[in-house]
């Protein structure tokens, strides 16, 4: 009997070591595999001294203790006073002893931290400290990360302060638990059972976010439902806020502009109407009675059918300022989205947000941020940076990225997004001369703004592993890490994430990191090479459909964007065309405006190019297009090979999942390639170059495919 239990336990342990459903994300805390290193760590850590009793300190302590227990396979004593090799965590104000270390915390602000090997009471200790409890918590997560990633901890001198103040997730989650553009199941917000039932997920969500520095969450879809502003929902929101609070995470909501009419019984939502202003003042004040540290609101107005100030002949500034005035007494902020474009406006969609918002620069209240998508159209696989960056020096701009992969293969394709994020951050706006990067616009340093922010549209759902694709977790991770430190490289973040999430083995890290780093570029090339954009299926945005010309609006039609005919392809945005380039600084315009020198990655974004145009490779445009599509598919096949060689280094669950998903990705890459090339060939009238595998079907077949139940729509 006893023996069989022992055997069972043994089998279970083996199983659990080799199975991983991904739920733990990058906070796995499995035992350190390297025996020598584990011994070193064990020698270097005698216990924890962790004074303080705030909910943040208690949560951080519990993370540290359980993290170390997992990593070191040993329960650590909580010490009453630091001993030799203690981990000492806290602020100078929680313990005299910490104050006695005299660590200069003047540079770390109210969220930063210092981790330093110091001598306390004559004993060597590791001190994790900051000005605030949340700073200490961030430091604890950093310290755990060092161990998880098998780094040295014997002589630490780390100082870290976030570059960006508001580091946010935007959930496009609806009250019925569907998630707009969500591909990982339903919303994790179980509205029906809130506030009574608090799912463990809420705490784990908060832990995951805190561990990467995310400090705010917008719970609801920007296509907003006014009901979330009513009492029963505010009670639910308050319950969530309570779970998140110890982790330094503030809650924000989306506000439907017409709420005063829909739930307030008013006749109008005119932002200049005193009744409307008063209604919002009361409503906001009411929200603060439920959530005293409520962060503020995010508004999508006069965009894609959402109501807004323009319904009453008012400007975006009038609308935003109305909310700002209601929020200001409580310290809340307004995040007003610049994602606006109208089918009725005859101008290039690319230009419309700039046209509307640039003239409003300086007209917003101090607690308004204008939230701008990374590019001018809509989260395409590759976009030039949004021309509003650098163009509104008098207004703090909040970067909006899309972490969920609406246009990036949804939850099926392995696409590591940090290179996309970085490409935009590193782009030079030249607004104040060379070096005026988007990163400097966003972190406030270029125009001296202290209110700064970066948001990512979340890719989180109730799938067991949160994000559907195991590698999509990396994009959530990357968003948080980059918002904390825009200077990190994509490679650093990938390296870190892989070690925490999978393994520290070099034989794993080296090839898989390489695979991650190339994944975004090759996705661009099998979907929208050479600057093609917006050629996906209508509505659900799944798969290729460059032929679509009958969407509900012309600016939703792929043909609007690629403009292919028998002579040329691409959108002329130079002075001979829509002249969108004039929205950039002269240096940027110059970079793109000449068809012969424009970086080819952006060629068809800015030019209508002859099929015969000679590319840098020497090939003509048609042949180059074929080359890009075909070589990208080859690269996906190489990705598969790389992954397949990792069987021994990955737990069986995730190995198989990624393997299956890569196989689907390969099929879909072939689908994109064949559908797009057959379609464009109907204009170019040129053959596929010799030696390429032939499409399995004809164009009519690809055009006949329908996906009525594709997710996220
Ligand atoms: O990318 C588009 C999406 C819409 C989304 C919109 C937006 C929330 O297709 O689903 O609506 O952008 O950002 O507002």
Structure report:
- The structure is a single chain.
- The chain folds into 3 domains: 23-160, Chitobiase/beta-hexosaminidase domain 2-like (Chitobiase, domain 2, 2-Layer Sandwich), CATH 3.30.379; 166-490, Glycosidases (TIM Barrel, Alpha-Beta Barrel); 525-571 and 608-704, Alpha-glucuronidase, C-terminal domain (Alpha-d-glucuronidase, C-terminal Domain), CATH 3.90.1330.
- The protein contains 22 helices and 16 strands.
- The protein has helices at 2-18, 35-44, 55-72, 96-100, 133-148, 200-211, 231-244, 259-262, 274-290, 316-327, 349-357, 418-426, 438-442, 473-484, 490-501, 506-527, 558-562, 586-593, 603-606, 621-644, 652-684, 699-704; strands at residues 47-49, 77-78, 86-89, 113-120, 123-129, 157-160, 166-170, 216-218, 250-254, 296-299, 333-337, 368-373, 397-402, 453-457, 568-569, 609-610.
- The strands form 3 sheets. An 8-stranded parallel beta barrel has the order 7-8-9-10-11-12-13-14.
- Strand 7 (166-170), helix 6 and strand 8 (216-218) form a beta-alpha-beta unit.
- The longest helix is centred in the last third of the chain and has 33 residues, at 652-684.
- Residues 8-17 have low confidence and may be disordered.
- The chain binds 4-O-methyl-beta-D-glucopyranuronic acid.
- 4-O-methyl-beta-D-glucopyranuronic acid binds next to loops.
């Amino acid at each position: 009997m006893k023996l069989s239990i022992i055997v069972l336990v043994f089998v279970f342990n083996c199983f659990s070591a080799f199975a991983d459903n991904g739920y733990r994300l990058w906070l796995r805390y499995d035992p350190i595999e390297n025996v020598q290193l584990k011994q070193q760590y064990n020698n270097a850590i005698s216990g924890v001294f962790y004074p303080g009793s705030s909910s943040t300190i208690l949560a951080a302590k519990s993370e540290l203790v359980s993290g170390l227990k997992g990593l070191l396979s040993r329960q650590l004593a909580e010490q009453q006073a630091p001993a030799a090799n203690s981990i000492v965590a806290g602020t100078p104000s929680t313990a005299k002893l910490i104050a006695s270390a005299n660590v200069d915390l003047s540079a770390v602000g109210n969220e930063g931290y210092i981790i330093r090997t110091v001598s306390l009471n004559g004993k060597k200790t590791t001190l994790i400290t900051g000005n605030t409890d949340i700073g200490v918590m961030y430091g604890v997560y950093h310290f755990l990360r060092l161990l998880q990633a098998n780094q040295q901890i014997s002589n630490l001198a780390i100082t870290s302060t976030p570059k960006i103040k508001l580091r946010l997730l935007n959930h496009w989650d609806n009250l019925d638990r569907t998630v707009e553009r969500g591909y990982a199941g339903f919303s994790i917000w179980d509205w029906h059972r809130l506030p009574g039932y608090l799912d463990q997920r809420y705490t784990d969500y908060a832990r995951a976010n805190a561990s990467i520095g995310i400090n705010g969450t917008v719970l609801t879809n920007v296509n907003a439902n006014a009901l979330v502003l009513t009492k029963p929902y505010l009670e639910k929101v308050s319950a969530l806020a309570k779970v998140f609070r110890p982790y330094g995470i503030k809650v924000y909501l989306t506000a439907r502009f017409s709420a005063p009419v829909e739930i307030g019984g008013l006749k109008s939502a005119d932002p200049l109407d005193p009744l409307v202003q008063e209604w919002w003042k009361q409503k906001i004040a009411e929200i603060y009675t439920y959530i005293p540290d409520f962060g503020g609101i995010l508004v999508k107005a006069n965009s894609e059918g959402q109501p807004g100030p323009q319904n009453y002949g008012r400007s975006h500034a009038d609308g935003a300022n109305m909310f700002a005035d209601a929020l200001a007494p409580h310290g809340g902020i307004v995040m007003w989205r610049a994602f606006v474009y109208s089918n009725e406006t005859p101008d290039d969609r690319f230009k419309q947000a700039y046209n509307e918002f640039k003239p409003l620069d300086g007209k917003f209240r101090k607690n308004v941020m204008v939230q701008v998508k990374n590019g001018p159209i809509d989260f395409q696989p590759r976009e030039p940076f949004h021309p509003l960056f650098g163009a509104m020096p008098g207004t703090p701009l909040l970067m909006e990225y899309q972490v969920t992969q609406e246009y990036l293969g949804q939850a099926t394709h392995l696409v590591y997004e940090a290179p996309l994020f970085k490409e935009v951050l590193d782009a030079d706006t030249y607004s104040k001369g060379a070096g005026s990067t988007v990163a400097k616009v966003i972190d406030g340093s270029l125009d001296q703004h202290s209110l700064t922010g970066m948001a990512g549209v979340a890719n989180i759902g109730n799938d067991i592993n949160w994000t559907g694709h195991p590698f999509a977790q990396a994009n959530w991770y990357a968003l948080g890490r980059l918002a904390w430190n825009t200077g990190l490289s994509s490679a650093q973040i990938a390296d870190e994430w892989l070690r925490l999430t999978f393994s520290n083995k070099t034989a794993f890290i080296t090839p898989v990191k390489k695979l991650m780093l190339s994944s975004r570029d090759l996705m661009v090339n099998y979907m929208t090479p050479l600057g093609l954009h917006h050629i996906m299926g209508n509505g659900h945005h799944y798969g290729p459909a460059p032929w679509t010309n009958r969407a509900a609006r012309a600016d939703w039609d792929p043909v609007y964007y690629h403009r292919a005919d028998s002579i040329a392809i691409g959108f002329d945005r130079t002075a001979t065309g829509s002249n969108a380039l004039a929205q950039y600084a002269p240096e940027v315009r110059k970079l793109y405006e000449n068809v012969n020198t424009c970086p080819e990655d952006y060629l068809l974004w800015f030019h209508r190019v002859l099929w015969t145009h000679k590319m840098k490779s020497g090939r003509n445009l048609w042949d180059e297009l074929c080359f890009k599509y075909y070589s990208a598919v080859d690269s996906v096949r190489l990705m598969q090979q790389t992954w397949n060689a990792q069987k021994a280094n990955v737990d069986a669950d995730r190995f198989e999942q990624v393997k299956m998903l890569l196989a689907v990705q390969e099929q879909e890459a072939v689908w994109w390639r064949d559908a797009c090339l057959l379609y464009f060939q109907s204009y170019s009238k040129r053959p596929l170059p010799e030696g390429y595998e032939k499409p399995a079907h004809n164009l009519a077949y690809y055009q006949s495919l329908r996906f009525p139940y594709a997710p996220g729509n």
